Amino acid sequence: MEINKQITIQVFDEVGGSAAISVDDGNAIFTKIDHAITNKVNVVLSFQNIELIITAFLNAAIGQLYSKYTSEELTANLQITNVRPEDKRLFKMVIERAKEYFSNSESFDESIKTEMEHND
Amino acid sequence: MKIVLPNKLSSDNAGFSFLAKLSSQLEDEMFQQVEISFENNTWFEANLCAILGAIINRSQANLNDFAFTNLQSQQKNILSRNHFLASFGGVKIEDGFNTTIKYRKSKISDEKLIHEYLFRELLGKDEFPKLSLGLKKEIERSIFEIYSNAIIHGGSENIYSCGQHFPNKVPARVDFTIVNMGTTIRENVGKHLNTLITGKEAIEWATKERNTTKPKTENIPGGLGLKIIQEFAKLNNGKIQIVSDNGYWQFTPNSITSNTIPYSFKGTIVNMEFNLDDKASYHLISEQDEEIVF
Fold this sequence. Notes:
The structure holds two protein chains of two kinds.
Chain A: E1 6-10, H1 11-15, E2 19-20, H2 23-38, E3 42-46, E4 52-53, H3 55-61, H4 71-77, E5 78-81, H5 88-119
Parallel strand pairs in A: 1-3, 2-4, 3-5
Helix pairs in contact in A: 2-3
Chain B: E1 2-4, E2 8-9, H1 13-26, E3 33-37, E4 43-44, H2 49-60, E5 65-69, H3 73-81, E6 100-107, H4 111-123, H5 133-154, E7 158-166, E8 173-180, H6 185-193, H7 199-206, H8 225-236, E9 239-252, E10 255-275
Helix pairs in contact in B: 1-2, 4-5, 5-8, 6-7
């Protein structure tokens, strides 16, 4: 029997409606994507019928992936489809933020703290 | 114990400061009969019910009992139409004018019910002005970014919300207020940075892009929600106000101001004002066909 190398995750089904607003739902989707990629199965993440997305959901579902995978690995294993044009900028923001967060977040916080102490 | 509301209670520095003072006054009271009197009040912005309700609810946990007195008929009418009085033993009446967005105490686990509430009360109303789909979506997104912040960072059981539509103002506007009585921004940021910080400084830090108090161990980035809503408020010519502990912060398209208020509010208030006469499309053409690149 041929092994299926690709699965599709319907966000509409995962979140139980048209609003992707819950961090818990985002975490559950992250876990599914992670499980698939770990087992060398490609993922299509479809946002069909999703009418509302917030950054907290995307940080959990997508941003969190950068804690384990590189951009190259995600490009090779994950495809995001059916995103409404007006929502695309959110994905860009979340992806850029995640890359930055997992590269130098601690030094960034430290610099802010130092700056505040100098202002006292 | 008698609390007399001021002549005008609006969504501004004076209004928020009064409510912070009220919250502070009630903090150590127990077994009191508290009378909240409208005898001097001629203007009460009904979205502020979210704050008043949150303060009263917390004080009720100290076994204090509340009564509203000396309401003029117009005030009684609007606070009945938005179901605020109904939450404290009064009656609720139909909102024939459709200008209220109901007072609601939500459990933090009710995220999806909050979505339905918002649609029912605001964006799905037939009587609501014919806003473009793009504008409705951005309003909805802004509100949920704030709900989500309250859930993630507030750590309290309930979230209070209430709104008011001002169709006769120029421009027509909606004010929507969200309150949690949990951990303040000052506590969260102070703990995260491991430093002593004022309420004002804490809000200034939290509203800067990229800053988040989420623990690194969770592996979930943050620090975008408040950026998104500031971007939208700028385009929409709207307003955002945040009160937490003794900090007050306000964003308008022309300026960001912050200051220290005389009393500490042991929670966080976010008020958003949306301009409904906005005809912008919120559809960024240049981004329509771009791929999402990891």
